[in-house]
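Data availability excerpt. The first of two example chains:
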Amino acid sequence: MKKTEFVDLLKKDEGSKKQPNKKQLKRLTRLEAKPSFLGLLIGSYVTFTLITFLAILLIFLLFNWLSRYQQVDLSTAKLPDFSAYLKSEEYSKIPTVSIFGVDGWFEVVEEDGTFVYSSTGTSHEYTLDELALIKASDSKDTIDTKTLASDDGNSYVITRHYFVGDKEHNAYLVLDKNYNAISGDLGLGKTSFTQKEYEILSYESEHPYYVFAKYAYKMNDGTNRYVVFLDTNDKVDFKFEYIIGIMIGIAIIIYAVVMAIYIQYINRNVQQPLAAITIAMRRFARDGYRETINYSGPTEFEQLAASFNEMVSLLNATEMEKQELEKRRQRMLAGLSHDLKTPITIIQGFSKAIRDDVIAEADKKRYLDLIVSKSENMGELINSFYEFSKLDHPDFTYNMESADVAELVRSHIASIYDEFNIRKYNLETDITEEQLFAKIDSPMMIRVIDNVVSNFFKYTPVGSTLLVEVKKDEEYVKIEFADNGNGIPKEAREDIFEPFVVGEKSRNNQGSGLGLAVCQKIVTAMGGTISLAEKPRSGFVTQFDILIPLASVDNSI
């Protein structure tokens, strides 16, 4: 993309008529200095083409090397097909090359290893132990050998995988430099080997493309003989006349596969992420549709998708927070309006009645006392709302200092002890003597205690008991307030800390429903939590738990 086109695109997207600044132009110039995306595509295509060409060249060289076998008429002939020649000792009629390959051979020996015939014309005999070590042609056994060098000379490790019936077995044997057993057992009944016997065992391990085995058969007179053979057909298993066709076919397949991979690579790693991001951005701009992109691929595209997802996540979180704040605002306004409407109605009604002289002189003082009471309730509600709103103000700050929470609670509860006696309520305390220091705002912490105690007085019958306990709970100071009053209605428990929850769930003429909401704001600002216990302690129906991190805990303010 040219710089002018990119600038036009920026102007179109931003809906601005401003030209890019110097910093933007410098960045554009730096982008132009890098290889273009088209150049990257061409480079990738050339790379894939080169790989294809080299693969075809290697195949051609391989088949050219195999062309020395063009005179061989390989077939599917097997040794048992010529058992008649074996029994009649017409060994020369057996097609050695067809059965065992160009480099293959076979030898016929008596059951005691005495030489009878060799396709190579070389006389060779085997001992009984050597014959026993040559595996049968239909055997599934495999033997692997390894030579280990040491200061004392080579040692040898033989691993055998064999079958007894349908059951598989594995065995091993370690030999010293003289081929004597050091440890293990192969299950062959031998613990010492000659060099030739070891060569028989290790032949297939050292020649993985060959098969060295024996084939047993009976002569017409009932005597047993063996055909010891070397099969090299695994080395060449195709006919030469198909070499050219196979080479061309494989070349076409390789090229097609490489091209398919290349096309898939371009589609998956370039077109798909660009299309996904483009569609997501268009839907976002047009419909406000905020959906993240699930993409995995090249780092550049992953970073682009991750940036888009981060933007979407932040916008979604902001939108959800905005909606939640709007709901809370509406709920607070509804609660405040509801709580103000009732006393205002009463004050207006009684005031008009007194003004219009429709109330007897003896009842006026009672009505005036009621007007004063309702106006005081309104003042308390407005003050509570002001305090709640003040905690959210950006200019409000907490004076956080290290303080002994246990001593603070003890002192404050002692200062309000007489109020419990006057109101005819009971107070129990269980405050640890241990010093529990935490970073708190002491006046605000006292405000939390007062709000909880105030709720106790408002919502529990006379004669109820409040238990205040302070103790250490792992890395926290735990403050418990438990009472045996009427409890909290089930429908109000889930959002008991929401503003004006009393106004919505269990409103009466005593509370504003802001006390616990204020408590939660203060405790949260101190890095702690306040919660309503699911199962209060025995003998109590309601319990609030406050947890404040101890000062020894890493809790940066």
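And the second chain:
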Amino acid sequence: MSHNMRSRFPSASTQAACGAALIVAVLLTIPAVDGARADTHEGHFVSVEELKRGDRCVGRTVFIGTEVEEFELLILGVVRGVAPGTDLIIGRAEGALLESTGILEGMSGSPVYKDGRLIGAIASTWQFSKEPIAGITPIGEMLPALELMDAEGHAGGRPGLDGLPGLAMLPEGERAASSLARICDMAGMLDRRTDTHPVPPAVAFGDRRLSPIAAPLVVSGADPDYIHRASRVLGPGVTPLLGSGIAPGSAARTDIEPGSAAIAGSSSGAGWEAGALEPGSAVGVQFVRGDANWTAIGTVTHLDGDRLVAFGHPLFNAGAIDMPMVAVYVHAVMPLQSMSFKYASGGELLGTIKEDRNRAVAGVVGPGPPMVPLTVDIRTNGGERRFEFETVSNRPYTALFSGLAFGGAVSSAVKASGPVMVDLSVRVDTGEELVEYRDVFHTTEPAMRCSGELSLLLSFLAENAFEERELQGVELDVVVREGDFRTAISRVDADRKVYRPGDDVKLRVFMRPRRGDPFERELCLRIPEAIAPGALTVRVGDAMSFHLWERDRLGTGAAPRSYEQLLNLIRDAKPGNIVVAQLLSDSPGLSLSGDEMRGIPGRAGLAMASSATSGAVDSSMFSVLREREFAVRGQVEGFYEMTVYVEE
């Protein structure tokens, strides 16, 4: 720090004393809590009982490239029992850089030592703090993550995020128009949804909050505006920012043997040499790789052979996971008024992160985890582009990050806003079957709408309540046409009002597109021969109207009762460019164990529906006699209903 800068501020010791006095005054209001603490392996680690105010310590982290640097840190106090079995160490970092920037995003996990023995990891801070004051997670509270990683039955892939993050990705004004949102509702999945990830734990001091340091989530392969919009579904644990997908001079490696600790070098001509993976090294958790990369940046706290703990706080508090652990190259430190951060890139594969716990993440150096391949073909007015990714194979994060990666690809190939028509086809390999889904929809936010639609579909398949399914691969074909191609149903006419059994009800459907000239289509709905005289209902409408009236018509019979019926909701979904016409009788219909029984004579259906005494038989309001449909160029809007009569 320059002499001029030092002259404008109190000395480090004076600032430390003032900061300590303020913090200790608050700490004294919190009672000490006795109880069992994690084993701190005396001789290697420092327990919180050994620490006192004024202890001088040394921290380790990476500020540039891959080289670990040291900085000094003064202990200001220890808060005992901030939560059950949880203590908090408060320290003030020193040194020209950190006194200028404050505690950095990306420092999560930076180890702190006293006399060469490990105290814990920098993990939290106060936003807008005038001094580089950090909360330090005691190492004794991080080590249990290693034990959990070794526990018998560790399977990974069962994080605890409840709900449908894809719903929050959909543009708010378009959620009601999403067929997949309706399908999830019919399956009962919206009853347990959450729009965002849980807020990481924080310790309140009066009206101030000590929060875990957000991990910089470096994203490549996406438009900056899209990254900003997508941040709302990720929660405060990570801060997305635009960056490079790979560290200088590094290339993806999958041949690292267990126990190896080679970290990505930087033989890019920038002068950075390869370093060894050690406490203080930058490390990343990678959610997406390939033509896009989404990597959360943190710091290694402690290595135990080929195993390590890092971050000092959770990413999502997901529990047992299997996510790629990658080397990180720090390009620069970015000082901000709110929260400074390390600008970095993920590089070589180092191994697997296997635990995401309340006080640490833990992983093992060696082979990477299985991933889910995702291919995207996008056709626009300007040509065709292909993207290839791999996303984490962890529920529900496969759905979350597959949707985010897909939306990022769309944001790179399509205009950010304004009306477009999207024709989306998806093929999902679950390992047991190939599930195909198609929809055509109008949107003004194509990237967010596409990301939400894919995330909802994958959540629907992976989070179903009937059978376990692991997603094996996803293929997407997307056609995007700029402009408003919506088409309204302006009128429906029948050739007459009165018919006889066996006659055709000939319908003329008049269509008015937003672009182009009006046109009409014809449909015929044949009246059954064995039909009693009386009134029949004709309904003509867009796909969404059709699905809504079918849900109302079937009542409880619309809810799936098996995995196969769940898949039928996807298979039977009508794309948004479809016009559906139905001929209905007011005789009640019925569903047996969720399968509608069509074609049963009215009186027989009435008798069966009346005798229904259990959930296996559900009556419906009308019986479907005939159903026809046709497709138009763009998304259809509108609904029309009329009554016709049958005479002998």
